[in-house]
Amino acid sequence: MEKRFNYKMVLMYIGKNYHGWQKQPKHRSIQGTLEDKLKILFNENISVIGSGRTDAGVHALGQVANFKTQTYKKAEEIYRYLNATLPRDISVRSVEEVPLSFHARFSAKGKTYLYRIYTKPDPFLHGFGWYVSKKLDLKKMLDALDIVKKSSDLRSLSKKGEYLREDVEIREINLVYDGKIIEIQITASHFLRYMVRKIVGHVVQIGLGSLSIEEFKTIIEAKDPTKGLFIAPPEGLFLKEVYY
Fold it and tell me: Taking a C-beta distance cutoff of 8 angstroms, is the pair 156, 149 a contact?
């Protein structure tokens, strides 16, 4: 049997010029861009597996991916080649050879997402955060995040679909505000599609006074994706880290 090799990559990218992670016909994607470069390097068709699909416009500080190939190359050679040839809005943080059993998605034990809101205009944050000009009640936002942390069924704060695991273990939620930027960081066993953006969308509405805590509880308890009406824009979302 022909020997195969498995490589793990940690990636950073700016999502605004891509139609998300997943390769799609007629649309530019992170996965497709990586596969095109690796096909040239290895002279074979390469399938890149990501830890999860980031949506169009979403960024990554620590996306993890792996690919298998019939050709051995040193990890350092792959690292140098990709960083020399990829568009400047995608960077490879590291490459390493891993056991064939490693799978970027199914081997993952948890993830951390970061969402950034900025409350004072700043052109250098445009495209890398959600600008909210009206005053936010941080106490109410923290109360809302506490409700999320205690909930395991967050289908109401996701996109309708079939999920391998619907019950989500929220391990940590933090909100930090430095007077200009609010950062909401969520660590969980896994994430349903749109989950972070819907959590933030509803929490901001609570901070603005447009949604009450009781209404928020009712939405979550419905366990119905059609009840969660608010979604934060993609440009404020970053996949920060994946745990194995």
Answer: no
